[in-house]
Specification:
Blueprint lengths: L2 H26 L3 H21 L3 H25 L12 H25 L14 H9 L4 H22 L26 H10 L2
Length: 204
């Protein structure tokens, strides 16, 4: 083996290990903030694998779209949500975990079967080079137009869900004066507290 192939193998093993461990951390960690940061690491690892496949444009798109947009959107949704809910026992939690583990193991076994039974064409096709962006654009807006639009709709739904979760509820009464207020998201014009205090001090 040459130095280049050895370096490529080491990079592949490091990125694959990071990808697998990060994915497990996203699913298994109880802290959702840590899971979101690990999800960014998973996206970066996928971008590194694209670079190993000489797909520099796809790697850049992976970083810009998923790390720079989707992951940031998830983090904003987590940070802005300020809803305090009492934790209650989930009925049938053990059965749910068992079914989820069975589904995950079944998908993992299916992926292994596809990986080991498919006659992969080795070596692969030659790199396209500078025409890769043109080829990707042609396939994206012809063969993969429907999946592309479905992904756009899913991202739009995720953004709307983040806005709904981050929206603060309006109280039925003013927390300072106790006066009833409407439920519209309209902030009432109020006198600043400092000016109000000075006005009270001037009154005999």
């Amino acid at each position: 083996m040459t130095i280049a192939s050895t370096t490529e193998l080491i990079c592949f093993l490091v990125l694959s290990t990071t990808l697998v461990l990060g994915s497990l951390g996203v699913v298994l960690l109880p802290n959702i903030v840590y899971s979101a940061f690990l999800l960014g690491g998973v996206f970066l690892s996928v971008a590194g694998l694209y670079l190993l496949l000489n797909a520099s444009f796809v790697a850049a798109a992976q970083v810009l779209v998923y790390v720079g947009a989707v992951n940031v959107l998830i983090l904003f949704a987590i940070m802005l949500v300020n809803k305090k809910e009492t934790l209650a026992a989930i009925p049938g939690l053990a059965l749910r975990r068992l079914l989820s583990a069975a589904v995950c193991l079944g998908l993992f076994g299916l992926l292994l079967r596809v990986a080991f039974t498919t006659n992969w064409a080795l070596p692969g096709p030659l790199p396209v080079g500078e025409e890769a962006t043109v080829r990707i654009g042609e396939h994206l807006f012809s063969d993969y137009l429907l999946p592309f639009e479905l992904a756009s709709v899913l991202l739009l739904m995720a953004m709307i869900g983040a806005i709904v979760l981050a929206r603060r509820d309006v109280f039925s009464s003013d927390v300072i004066t106790g006066e009833p207020v409407d439920q519209g998201l309209i902030e009432k014009a109020r006198t600043p507290l400092l000016l109000e205090q000075r006005a009270l001090e001037k009154t005999p």
